[in-house]
Write a structure and sequence with these properties.
Blueprint lengths: L12 H22 L4 H13 L2 E2 H8 L3 H13 L3 E6 L2 E9 L1 H22 L4 H15 L2
Helix pairs in contact: 1-5, 2-5
Length: 143
């Protein structure tokens, strides 16, 4: 039996979006790994920078990570001085997590790696096509 050169859904938008997403995630991981950075660290730091300080449980929910897995990431980031944890004065059982100036600087560096991954992904497109793609995707997601 001859194998088809294309997938049965290759003419569908959802298939193409899924493949583009997989490629973009691969490129981000590649750029981060080459820089010796864990992509999960990015999610933590970006959430703290964008959404503000929060309790560890709140942070886990915001980034969709299991709470016990988050503790390991927080330990790593705290050791690197990228975040600080302090006891919540309202509830001494909780810890409030905040990004540090060093964490902000690291996040800026990580953003540059993501921009590089995006440039790799979009390399075949012209500037006008890139703008059109972003406009269309933004409309689809309602952002």
């Amino acid at each position: 039996m001859k194998k088809s050169a294309t997938h049965r859904l290759s003419d569908r938008v959802l298939w193409a979006l899924g493949r583009a997403n997989m490629q973009s995630q691969r490129l981000v991981r590649q750029h981060m790994t080459q820089a010796g950075i864990r992509t999960q660290h990015y999610h933590v730091l970006a959430s703290l920078a964008d959404d503000g300080a929060g309790a560890q449980a709140t942070l886990a929910d915001r980034i969709g990570l299991d709470r016990s897995d988050l503790v390991t990431l927080l330990d790593e980031l705290e050791e690197l001085k990228f975040l600080a944890r302090q006891v919540d004065p309202a509830d001494r059982r909780r810890k409030i997590v905040t990004i540090t100036p060093a964490g902000e600087k690291q996040l800026d560096s990580m953003d540059q790696l993501i921009y590089a991954a995006e440039a790799d992904l979009l390399q075949p497109l012209t500037a006008t096509e890139r703008k059109t793609l972003l406009t269309l995707l933004t409309r689809l997601t309602g952002d």
